[in-house]
Amino acid sequence: MKTFSYIILAALIVLSGPYTSSRTWAYTLEECVECHREGSQESTLHISVEEFESSIHGREGMECTDCHSEVTDGSHEDLKGSGAVQCLGCHDQENRHGLESEIGNRPQAETGNRPQCHSCHTRHGTLETDNEASQVHPDQLKETCRGCHPVECGESDLLSWLPSLQVASHNKQDFGQAYEKSNCLGCHQGSAAHGEMNPINDQDCHHCHLPREGRPGLWGTMHPRADLNQQPGVFVAGVVYLIFFVLLVGGGFRFYVKRHRSSKK
């Protein structure tokens, strides 16, 4: 009887061999951190453990492999792209940011330079939108957007700056609205953030400043750029203002020199 039992046990071990050798094995959070923490010599890809632990993902107790789902064994060290994250696994909002825009007359989708989710939300420090430290909080948006849109965020050249007089004519009694040029999503709403027109907050600057139903924006462009092809009016105005400015300064300097010489006589 014992011999028969040993035979059955051996058969079970042999039959279960393929299953045990092929089942998926996942790294623990501690094992990932051991290689990828800041200062580790095990990998060149480092994360701040403190930043991750304070993020919304860290506070929810997520493991690294919940996002980096293709990392299952040591082969990820040599397999390029195995650590890529698909945010759509948990989030419904698809990344369409920059899908229609162009770089050098080529769609960004073809150049491979299109912004990804982590371009705005960070890789490991994602916070709630209403958290003041979040990269996508209204108070931080100007700095976040500036990385890719410097002109639109105020870093304009002289010709663009000269004609950019802003008239403060809003109804300021509604303190729930942020009537500021730096309020990027007040105009662009979902079209800028995620590539769709669904509103993502209650800011309503777009009612006046964005083209709608085939008509231009009521107050024109919010981001003047001295471009002869795209905004020729701004370019011409900038040149005229620059000439006027040079003549004014030059005339003042000439008047000062002339008066100074006259006083010596």
> Within the largest sheet, what's the order of strands?
1-2
Q: Secondary-structure element sequence? A: HHHHHEEHHHHHHH
Distance between the termini: 132 Å
Largest sheet: 2 strands, antiparallel
Helix content: 40-55%
Strand content: under 5%
Uncertain regions spanning at least 5 consecutive residues: 12-24
Number of strands: 2
Tally of helical segments: 12
General form: elongated
Mean pLDDT: 77
Short description:
The protein is mostly helical and 265 residues long.
Secondary structure layout plus pairing:
Elements: H1 2-22, H2 29-36, H3 49-54, H4 56-59, H5 64-67, E1 102-103, E2 106-107, H6 108-111, H7 117-121, H8 141-146, H9 158-161, H10 184-193, H11 206-209, H12 232-264
Antiparallel strand pairs: 1-2
Description:
The chain starts with a helix and ends with a helix. Among the domains are: 29-73 and 121-127, no CATH class; 138-161 and 181-225, no CATH class; 226-265. The chain has 12 helices and 2 strands; from the N terminus they run αααααββααααααα. The chain is elongated and about 90 Å long. By secondary structure, the chain is mainly α.
Supply database-style keywords.
single chain; 265 residues; mainly alpha; two-stranded antiparallel sheet; 12 helices; 2% strand
